[in-house]
Amino acid sequence: MEESDPPFLKFYKNLFDDDHSAYKKRDNGDSYDVEEWELPMIDLGRLDRGGWEGEDCKREIAEASRKWGFFQVINHGVSCDILEKMRCEQIKVFKKTYNEKMSNHRDLNIPAGSYRWGTPSATCLRQLAWSEAFHVPLTDICSMGGATSLSTTMEQFATAVSNLAETLAEILAEELGHKSSFFKDNCLPSTCYLRLNRYPPCPITPQVFGLMPHTDSDFLTILHQDQIGGLQLVKDGKWIAVKPNREALIINIGDLFQAWSNDVYKSVEHRVVANRQTERFSTAFFFCPSYDTMIQSCVENSIYRRFSFKEFRQQVQDDVKKLGYKIGLPRFLLRSN
Fold it and tell me: Where does the record place the Fe2OG dioxygenase domain (predicted)?
């Protein structure tokens, strides 16, 4: 097989030598034999119109968060121009060579230490993520000062989706009968981040995922993806493929919101299936609190114990290092339950 960029086959040679033939024998195609569904579509323009239209819109957001954990939005406040510029800029930066990306070559115009690829902790092929990303905190984006087209576009995108995330979080809290400044006070630019993703063509899919099954360790994730497809999630106990829509943004509930809502809103397992011929791009915004923020149910009779975001993240990292995968919220259930 021809080497890829990044050099997955070379760097993870031991995993391929150990697992490739075994996975080839027992692969049942479960990554592809899934039905394609369209996520619930919510027009946020109704919020501006107020009245019964605005209230219906809020109820739909809460209902999708309860039943799906995922939904998509249009008239979301992020212009098509910004979305297209963001995609073009990240394509350009990912076209740099592997060595340039690893060494943070000056032409990248992106903060040092942002580049990630593969899965350093992987012990088998099913734990390997066939993807690369630039993981950039919002404070780093602001410090770039709009000096380049990339930094300007990232800042415009980040500002718009930050406002959207805060609006959605407040709506979800309100639908639980809980009005507060919790999200505005705790989910700040210093704690949220963007992740620019590229999923290169993968010669051994479906043995290897673009991103292995997981839930997100935040309150909300806002995703813009291209038309290639590959995002899949669990619905009613089975995997479904998400039909791409480049004009919409995908919203999903994270672990922290599930705990905060006492399991009313669902953080749903999802994955990305690699494509054999075509690369895929997406941009994700993660709505996170500070590490010292305490997470506890907004209602009585919580099923989770009180914990800090730092404690949660540390437990996730420890589990991934020890087990190769994330346990997440079950670690924080009250023993009486």
Answer: 190-289
* Residue 312 within a domain: no
In a domain, 214, yes or no: yes
Q: Is residue 145 domain-resident?
A: yes
| Structural domain includes residue 294 | yes
Cα separation, 129 vs 48, in Å, equals 40
Q: Which residues are catalytic?
A: 280
Structural domain boundaries enclosing 150: 27-303
Q: What CATH number is given to the structural domain containing 77?
A: 2.60.120.330
Let me know if 334 is exposed, middle or buried by CB neighbors in 10 A (0-12, 13-18, 19+): exposed
Give pTM, 2 decimals: 0.93
**Distance between CA atoms of residues 92 and 108, nearest Å:** 9
